[in-house]
Write a structure and sequence with these properties.
The chain is α/β, with parallel strands linked by helices. The protein has 17 helices and 14 strands. Residues 48-444 form the Nitrogenase/oxidoreductase component domain.
């Protein structure tokens, strides 16, 4: 991928320090700037450290999640994942120490200890995750010591999650904090032995709209069982069995690659990168998993499943492609694995991708992204609303796929929007998810409402 990081006249209105985070495919030479802390004052779409940790850990269904900070932090991340549970609903409850000015002045450790005592005695959870926030981190509360004392007192796992937002302006740091907490939870205690199995762990899967259950059904059909997902529809007991798996498959690489590497070093579990968004990606991922098991029966069942499901997807794509061909699309999502899938799906429908970006992409991922796109496509890392708005207008976008923050920008500009956020309730994974996505793209892009909307770039669709 060749890129340019020099500002064009059209980019003059943008923040100067951001110019190296916005590139155009096919021009020249410099690679995109990414994985840096968000620029202060630019109000980027990237979330804070605490949010990064919370979105990874919150789907552990039977754990208590206690936010040590002001009530606003707990409110911000309450029920932010559309994760579904087949059992406990404890994770739906939001607990906070509700720090006030007095706690900031005199310290919040006693208040945290009192909250842990109340939670342990009232709910008897198998584990409590305690999240530090900007305020508790800045005043120096020692949540590690408080959690250690509570673990000994109540004989449960009380796990500190060191996710103070001021540490960094980067959500990825929060992923790491969550990963460290998970490893602390699943590492066998002295003398404990975890039995090895032929099951696999599914890392970076959060069961949004029941998506873990879709993949679980595919794998069961071909003869493979999921041990536990990190962390969709998981329980503390199931997570503690994770070291017994023979394979880790990793979907959300941004949140779980580090964990997969640590599990390989600690437990000898190899891992494969997979992507179950989009029909072609799903087929490729199933074949990779089947190849790992090296079993002719598993391989045969895999090919039979793929042949059956792909035909249904092709029928739907053919039905809608004529209406969608040539439409201009924008993509802005959290992780690169999701962006790759959406690019592939929209390209298969004959659509032109004119703008794409992510919150947490790496340079190698942006290079691969550029190889999938036509010359002239704008790629943005850690965008802010002004940049997204500018390019939606400049590129005359018909439809945008993104998250909750981008929805309102698109609608205000008269641009169709497809929700691909982590709080959605509709599953978009696997073959059936690909069909659902195609139908949503068609219904949104080709809605008659756009005939009556005057776009900011001065045209009315006919």
């Amino acid at each position: 991928m060749e890129n340019t990081c020099s500002q064009t006249p059209e980019q003059d209105a943008l923040i100067t320090e951001r110019q190296h985070s916005i590139v155009t495919t096919g021009n020249t030479k410099t690679s995109i700037n990414c994985t840096d802390d968000s620029l202060a004052g630019s109000v980027s779409q990237r979330a804070c450290v605490f949010c990064g940790a919370r979105v990874v850990l919150n789907p552990v269904t039977d754990a208590v999640h206690l936010v040590h900070g002001p009530i606003g932090c707990a409110a911000y991340t309450y029920d932010i994942r559309g994760s579904l549970s087949s059992g406990s609903e404890m994770y739906r409850r939001s607990f906070s120490t509700d720090m006030k000015e007095k706690d900031v002045i005199f310290g919040g450790e006693k208040k945290l200890a009192a909250c842990l005592a109340e939670l342990a005695e009232k709910h008897h959870p198998p584990a409590i995750f305690v999240y530090s926030t900007c305020v508790s981190g800045m005043i120096g509360d020692d949540i590690v010591a408080v959690c250690k004392e509570a673990s000994l007192t109540y004989d449960i796992d009380v796990i500190p999650v060191e996710s103070s937002g001021f540490i960094s302006g980067n959500k990825i740091v929060g992923y790491r904090a969550a990963g460290e907490a998970l490893l602390r939870l699943i590492t066998p205690k002295e003398g404990e032995v975890i039995e090895k199995t032929r099951k696999l762990n599914f890392l970076g899967e959060y069961n949004l709209g029941g998506e873990k259950w879709v993949v679980e059904r595919y794998l069961r059909e071909i003869g493979i069982e999921i041990n536990v997902a990190f962390t969709g529809d998981s329980t503390v007991k199931a997570l503690k069995k994770a070291p017994g798996s023979c394979l880790n498959i990793v979907q959300c690489t941004g949140s779980m690659h580090w964990v997969a590497n640590q599990m390989y070093e600690a437990f000898g579990i190899p891992y494969l990168d997979v992507n179950f968004f989009g029909a072609e990606n799903t087929a490729e991922s199933l074949r990779k998993i089947a190849a790992f098991y090296d079993d002719p029966e598993i391989s045969a069942r895999t090919e039979a499943l793929i042949e059956r499901e792909m035909q249904a997807v092709k029928d739907v794509n053919e039905k809608y492609r004529k209406s969608l061909e040539g439409k201009r699309a924008a993509i802005y999502v959290g992780g690169a694995f999701k962006a790759f899938a959406i690019i592939r799906q929209l390209t298969e429908l004959g659509m032109e991708i004119v703008l794409t970006g992510t919150q947490t992409g790496k340079k190698t991922e942006y290079e691969r992204m550029g190889s999938l796109l036509n010359e002239g496509t704008v790629i943005i890392d850690d965008a802010n609303p002004a940049e997204i708005e500018k390019f939606l207008i400049e590129k005359k976008v018909d439809v945008m796929a993104g998250g909750v923050k981008e929805r309102f920008l698109a609608y205000k500009l008269g641009v169709g929007f497809i929700d691909h956020n982590h709080d959605r309730k509709d599953g978009l994974i696997g073959f059936e998810g690909a069909i659902r996505f195609t139908k949503e793209v068609y219904a949104t892009t080709c809605s008659p409402v756009w005939k009556y909307v005057r776009h900011e770039y001065g045209e009315t669709d006919q």
